[in-house]
Amino acid sequence: MENPQAQKPWKVEYAKSSRSSCKTCKSPIEKETLRLGKMVQATQFDGVMPMWNHADCIMKISNQIKSTDEVEGLELIRWEDQQKVRSYVQSGGPPDTSPATSEFTTKECGIEVSPTSRATCKQCSQKILKTEVRISTKPEGQGPRSLAWNHANCFMELSPSIEVEKLPGWETLPVSDQEAVRALVKKVPSNAGTKRRKDAGDDQKSKVARSEGDVSTSRDVSVRSACDVGDKLG
């Protein structure tokens, strides 16, 4: 006998086409739009089927989803959309979009395993290969198109104090990748930038010292030349 708990009551995904309509607002759900489906008993076959809605339409109504465990496919959507769903479930109502309290709008970074090799690291300009851990950055209040991707190690060099375990998407990383990222945090020294500035300062001091030495030597040569000329004339 099939376990009734195997099928989750909700399903989330990006619309594969523009053929479905939202059961809440009755408008078409455009292709690649985030949608939430309420799983209901099918009338034409033995099984269940999703009744699709715009995700935003569902999340305008309080307490539609009781737990993130009820949502199939949550880990497969983009991290910023995962955060919207989680925020809705935790608050029991529509997500708060005010900058002061919204976790979604104040989070500017995310971490995930790269699903493709298409993205390029903003820091080193090299490709981020499929299955590599990458960290995204996004200006506050901007949409998904403003995301910039970084190799985890490149990002750590610029932000060594970042608390990676608090980044959205951390929980979905495999344990092996979590350990690898933690190792990166330990490798990046917090005073790396200070050391570079100190070395640069020492170089500048050396250049100044050499320059002053060159001037002194030049003056000594000029004085000796003047004395030689004076002796010859005398």
What does this structure look like?
Residues 214-225 have a biased composition (Low complexity). It is found in: Nucleus. One of its GO terms (biological process) is DNA repair. This is Poly [ADP-ribose] polymerase 1-like. This protein has two domains: 1-96, first zn-finger domain of poly(adp-ribose) polymerase-1 (2-Layer Sandwich); 106-196, Zinc finger, PARP-type (first zn-finger domain of poly(adp-ribose) polymerase-1). Helix content is 35%, strand content 15%. The chain has helices spanning 55-58, 79-91, 103-106, 152-158, 175-187, 192-233; strands at 10-14, 34-41, 48-54, 71-72, 109-113, 133-137, 148-151. The protein has a four-stranded mixed beta sheet with strand order 3-2-1-4. The chain has a three-stranded antiparallel beta sheet with strand order 5-6-7. It starts with 9 loop residues before the first strand and ends with a helix. The relative contact order is 0.08.
In summary, what is this structure?
Keywords: Metal-binding, Nucleus, Zinc, Zinc-finger. By secondary structure, this protein is α+β, with helices and mostly antiparallel strands. The protein is built from six helices and seven strands, in the order E-E-E-H-E-H-H-E-E-E-H-H-H.
CATH architecture group name of the largest domain: 2-Layer Sandwich
In terms of quaternary structure, the protein is single chain
What is the total domain count?
2
Give the end-to-end Cα distance, rounded to a whole number of Å.
Answer: 123 Å
Range of strand content? 15-25%
Under the CATH scheme, which class of the largest domain?
A: Alpha Beta
**Biggest sheet statistics:** 4 strands, mixed
Q: Total helix count? A: 6
- Main sheet strand line-up: 3-2-1-4
H/E series, N to C? Answer: EEEHEHHEEEHHH
Q: Helix/strand/pairing class, anyone?
A: alpha+beta
Averaging pLDDT over every residue, what do you get? 77
Within the CATH hierarchy, at the fold level, what is the topology of the largest domain? first zn-finger domain of poly(adp-ribose) polymerase-1
CATH homologous superfamily of the largest domain?
Answer: Zinc finger, PARP-type
* Unreliable stretches: 97-107, 192-197
Shape: elongated
Count of strand segments: 7
* C-alpha-based Rg, rounded: 30 Å
